[in-house]
Every structure is written in C-alpha cells, then in structure tokens.
Amino acid sequence: MTAATHSTLFPQAPETADAVLDGLDPEQRAVATALHGPVCVLAGAGTGKTRALTHRIAYGVRAGILQPASVLAVTFTNRAAGEMRGRLRQLGAGGVQARTFHSAALRQLQFFWPRAVGGELPRLVDRKIQLVSDAAGACRLRLDRGELRDVTAEIEWSKVTQTVPSDYVAAAHKAGRETVRHPAEIAQIYASYETLKRDRCVIDFEDVLLLTVGILQDRHDIADQIRAQYQHFVVDEYQDVSPLQQRLLDLWLGDRDNLCVVGDASQTIYSFTGATPDHLLDFRNRHPGATVVKLVRDYRSSPQVVHLANGVLARAGGRAAEHRLELISQREKGPEPVFAEYADEPAEAEGAARRIRELIASGVSAGEIAILFRTNSQSGIYEQALADAGVPYQLRGAERFFERDEVRRAGRALRAAARFGGNDAELDAVGDLPSQVRAVLSGEGWTTEPPAGSGAVRDRWESLAALVRLAEDCVRAEPTATLAAFVTELDERANAQHAPTVEGVTLASLHAAKGLEWDVVFLVGLAEGMMPITYAKTDEQIEEERRLLYVGVTRARYHLGLSWALSRSPGGRPTRRPSRFLDGLRPGSMGSAGRSASGGRGGVEHGTRAQAGEPLSTGRRRGARKVARCRMCGRTLDAAEMKLMRCEDCPSDMDEGLYERLVEWRARTAAALGQPAFCVFTDKTLIAIAETAPEDEGELSRIPGVGVRKFRAHGSDVLALCAGQVLDEVGEGVDGED
Q: Across the chain, which distance is largest between two alpha carbons, in Å?
C-alpha cells in the first residue's frame, strides 16, 4: 500500500529551483512550469500527478514566482493533504497551505464568524446519524439502522447539491435517486433535521461549506481579504468536486484565473455523494485560454495490468468515456492477470487466501497485498479465510489508525519518554531512535517476533510494529533524528490521519481503495449483481460501476487476480455469471468493439480563445484518421492485426463451424470465378467474420477486408452462412441448422 516510507519531517531540498525539475518526464515538467493562467492536468491512474503538482508548487516557490503563503492546495482527504505537505517540505516549499475543502473552509469560518455573524461558531457535530434519528422520531417515523444510514446519505447529497428540503422530492426524482423510504418522508426528515440543528445550536460537515459560501457571498470585504491572501489555487481530484465545492472555489477565485486543476474523468466513482466530472470536462469552456496537459505514462503498473485497465474502459460509454486516457506502462514486463472461477463464495475466499499464503512464502510482504470487493458486507468471508490460513490482515475503512487504543497509549508513552530528554540514562543508553522507540513500545506489548495466529492480539502488535518501522524510516532520512522529533512527526500525521503501513493483507472496498496501490491485488466477487451492483439500473450508474472496476485494476503494480463465484453457498445452484465488464477480456469470452480514447495521447495543449466551445480532451484535426483498436481489450492495433480486429495474442471467440463453412464456400466460389481463394476473402477476413458472426449488412460491411466491391459480390452469401443457412450452390441458400 502507498505509505509514507520517508519521513516528511526532515526535508532534503533540491539546491536550486531548476533542480526541482530534475527527474520529471516531459509532460510532468510541462505541468511544473505552467505557472500562469488556468491549467488543467488530465492525469491517468499511476501517472505521477501528485509528483507533478508538488513539483509545480515547489518550482514556483523556489523560483520566486509564488509566495508560499499565497498558495492554497486543495484535495479531498486529510491523508492526501498530509502527503502533499510532506512532499512540499522535502522540496523546500514549506509554508504552503495544503488542505481539504472542509478544513480550509472551517479555518476561514472560525476566523470570520465573530465578525460576520457575532458570537462563537456553533459546535460542529462529527456524526449526524443520531440527529437524523431524532429528526425521524420527531416526524413519528421509525428507521432501522440501514435506513438511518441511507437517509443520512440523502441529506448529505441534498446539501452538497444545494437542494433545500422543499425541493428534495423533485430533485431526487430528476437525479434518479433510489431511496429506502418515500422521497416525501425523506424531505420531512430533512426539514426536521435542519430545525433540530438550529434548536441545538450545532452545525454539520456540509454546513461548514454552506456557511462559508454564504459569508463570502454576503460580505465582500471578507471575500476580498481571503482573495488578498490566496493568489494561486491548486485542486487535486477535480473530477470529484461537488456543485457546492465548485461554488466555494469560484468565490475564492473571484475574477482571477490562477487556477490549476488535476483529475481523471475515468476515476469518477463518487457521484452518489454529489461529485460530478462535469467541472473537469467543461474546464476549457469556462477557461478558454487554459493550458491542458495530459499525463498518460503509467509508472505504477506493469504493461499487463495497464493493458487490462485500458481494455476495461475500451467499451465504456457516456461523456466521461469520450475523454478517457489510454495509459502507457513505463514498467518492466510482469505476469498476466489471472482469472479464476469458483463454485461458491467460500471456495473463492479460500482460493484467494491460499494464493496469498503462497505469495508471502515466496517473499512478498503481506502489507503489499490487498483484497478488494464491491461492498463491505463481503469482507467477513475473507477475514475468516485469511485467519484460517494464518495470514495477518487489516480492514481498511474500519477504526482509524491513530484512534486505536494501543496507538493512543503508545503515543502517550513516547511523548513522556521524549520529555525526559537526556535525563533518562537507561533510554539514552539504548542508542539510535529506532532502538529507543522499540524500548518504549516493548512496555506496551511490542516484541521482536509477532504473536502466533490472528485476532486482536495480532492487530495490536501490527499497530506497534508500524510505529517501529516509521522510526526506522525517519532515521534513514535523517540519521540524527531524535525521539522528540519523531513524536512531532507522529502528531502531524495524527492531525492529517496520515497513517504508517500496517503489516497485513489489506481488505477494503473498491471505494476505500481509491488513491492507494499494492504490489498484489485480488479483485473478488466479480459476478453480475455485484459488479455491476444489482441496483445500478441506468446507463450512467452502469458506467460508474465500470469505472469502479477500472479503479480496482489500476491499484495493482504487478500481480492481479480477478475472480467470481457461480453460487453464493456450497451446493447452491450455479446461476451466476461473470461480470459483463470482463467480456472480451477473460479467456474464452466474447466482446464488442471498443471505443477509442479521444484524449489518449499525452502532451500539452495551449488554449486560445477560439477553443471556447471545444470539448476538453479533443485536439484532433478534422478528417484525422481514427485509431484501430482491439475489440477484445481496446489496445491500438498494428497494420497486421487490423483485419482480425483484435490483437494476435487476445483469445479468439471464433465459431469453428461457421469458419469451416466459410472456407468451403470460399473454395467453391473461387473455383467458379477461376480465381485464387484469397482473392475472394483472406484467411484473416474469414476469421474476423467467424468471430463476429455479423447479423446484418452494417455489421458485415464494418469488418476490415470486406470492401464495397466484395460486399456487393458476396455479402448475401456470407450473411446467409452466418444465419445458419446451407448453400447448396454458390448464391443459392436453403434453411438449415447451425
């Protein structure tokens, strides 16, 4: 898993501004040096977007173009913001504000509230579910635990899309929201919830943004003060911006355009929370002079993983798919992805656990392995399978690292030891920082060897071991690091929820895995009804499920396993089938022709006013030749492969019987015409026909090798053969069985 393997507390900054640019590829360097006007970075998975962003800010600061205090870098998680601050310190650009939207807004709200409203800011509630329960009770509605969670999510969606209770029913219907209760009841609970908040003088997470927006809209003096402080804005994961966040960003900017956004429409997987890629895709429309840089060099994954990832999106539809990026792996060759089918879910879990145990025995770290699933409810069976196999694991999305009891106790012990300074002779005699940390944590339960088995005891040991490894990382970065400096580092990480790596196989949902990566990834439960999930009904929802699978595939650096079960329980009816998203990708499956990527190539586009109405990712000249792509995996085809419409090494889904009939028909036709057989159709064209089995004139005419002349001469015969008819003589068909 991606983790802070180098301490962010001891930066080793490049000596000059130009040295900041060392090691960047041409596109990353273009990002780093585009410091004026609007900039949009389209960054595929694993293409080094955070590296490009942080080097951009650092280069601007080190070159004297940007003042650190005037830059606000915004992202979506505390962890990402913490990582960004750490990298900026290492590059010699400390003092830059890197925060989440909510964190930045809360600081402004706390500072300006007394002046704008008066008195103290109302208390912020961490969890709103109890308030929602009370609101439902006030409406005389009883909600179970699941309904409470879902109604809470609806209230959150309403607020980030700026929908008031009276408009909820119409807005939910227009957005196609699937709700657990009647929309009118949810609107009633929502209105009651807002009343309760006012009565109790509390605000929720979404109110932080709403209130900040309200103050900036109403108080121009406050808006001007914030704009005077922040002159330059950077927004990461821009495809996940909600309408409310975009409104806040617009107010921060005012009439200026010093904005750099980074995103990938193909990784939009949070639309249920109000996120939309429209702001990213419409960026050039709103900023006609924007510079657009596309990052497509994938430094994370092997060519085999990237090949499959491109194939997943090759059949995607919708607006985001029109602007997808085709990744190009920069890594060494790796193993082919492994597809596995199991009789039932327990067998699938046992198969994954068995393979993981083999990988660990071969030297792969457990912390570099992940099992990813569609819903959290799938985790239990994998927890049991790993425990039975004696494999340590951690459940991501459960209790936060720095909130665990053993981590809190360890922090207090380390803090107390650091306060003694040089007065603790026993601790000072231990030696370097890692040894001191081990000595302190041994009193909290850490031992040189992990406890046998799994469970709570092993989980506690893994937490302490992660702290020991972090101390070792700090010393590698700065050999003279002290215990006091290490405690400061821990405090900063705790504030940012920037947890160190815990040695254990990660179990996580696909949503929770966004932004992370591992050497080995197992994507499990890839059956229809789970991927795509059964309640994904509309085309937009189906496409988001496809993007979710794409995100899962691109988490893997080297090994990738994909599996599904034919039934839920042992002995159950094997009625399930593999996910439709794997059609044409897994061996033996059929797939339709892929969609080409309009924004697939990397590079830089400098905006002009004439581009105002042009789609963001295009730049193709009118009349430019379309790229031929494999109908199985979506890879660009070379000239020799075009007639097959697939890569030579992609699995064939040819109808052998149809192919034999076509060969026999071709021989008769060639003899009747007095021509060589290949003059009728080449072998590759016959293979392509047998693989696609065209049903009408349009499908047949699109097959390479079937030109207008050959279609007119032989089209009716070929379509008759594809329909299962038997041709007794050339051009004379009778009904027959296939």
A: 104
Q: What is the mean pLDDT of each successive set of 10 residues along the chain, which is 738 residues long?
A: 40 77 91 91 93 92 91 88 86 88 93 91 88 93 84 90 92 84 92 94 92 94 94 93 92 92 90 85 89 93 95 87 88 94 93 95 93 86 86 72 80 85 62 85 83 61 83 81 85 68 84 92 94 85 93 96 91 88 84 50 57 41 47 58 67 78 90 84 87 84 81 89 77 42
In three-state secondary structure terms, 344 is: strand
For the chain, helix, strand, coil in percent to 5 are: 50, 10, 40
Answer positive or negative: Cα dihedral of 690, 695, 699, 700.
positive
Q: In what order do the strands lie in the sheet with 603-606?
A: 97-100, 71-75, 232-235, 259-263, 39-43, 291-295, 603-606
Nearest of 340, 341, 344 to residue 572 by alpha carbon:
344
Distance in angstroms (rounded) separating the CA atoms of residues 387 and 158: 41
Please name the residue that has the structure tokens 């998203």.
581
Q: Which two tokens stand for residue 669?
A: 């036709």
| Separation of alpha carbons 161 and 177, rounded Å | 13
**Per-residue tokens: 338:** 């492994």
Tell me which residue of 151, 175, 150, 178 sits closest to 161, measured CA to CA: 175
- In the Cβ-directed half-sphere of 24, how many Cα atoms lie within 13 Å? 23
Residues 6+ positions from 362 with CB-CB distance below 8 Å:
none
pLDDT of residue 362: 94
Reported residue count of the chain is 738
Pairing, β 726-729 against β 732-734 = antiparallel
Could you give the residue ranges of the DSSP H alpha helices within 205-288? 205-218, 220-229, 243-253, 278-281, 283-286
The pair of structure tokens assigned to 139 is 């409406």
Would you say 369 and 520 are in contact if contact means Cβ atoms under 8 Å apart? yes
Distance of CA 392 to the CA centre of its chain: 25
Q: What whole-number distance in Å separates Cα of residue 259 and Cα of residue 589?
A: 45
Q: Which string of DSSP letters, residue by residue, matches 386-432?
A: HHHTT--EEETTSS-GGGSHHHHHHHHHHHHHHHTGGG-HHHHTT-S
Helices (H), ranges, 574-707: 656-673, 683-692, 697-701
Rounded-to-integer distance, Cα 96 and Cα 104, Å: 12
Query: Locate tokens 């000596």: which residue?
Result: 15
53: nearest Cα among 302, 296, 295: 295
Phi/psi at 652 (nearest 5 deg)? -85, 140
Q: Please provide residue 205's backbone torsions phi and psi, each rounded to the nearest 5 degrees.
A: -60, -45
Sign of CA dihedral 414, 415, 417, 418: positive
**CA 732 to chain CA mean position, Å:** 56
> What is the separation of C-alpha 641 from the centre of its chain, rounded to a whole number of angstroms?
32
Tokens read off for 440: 């302190």
Can you give the pLDDT at residue 558? 95
This prediction's pTM: 0.69
* pLDDT at residue 728, rounded to an integer: 65
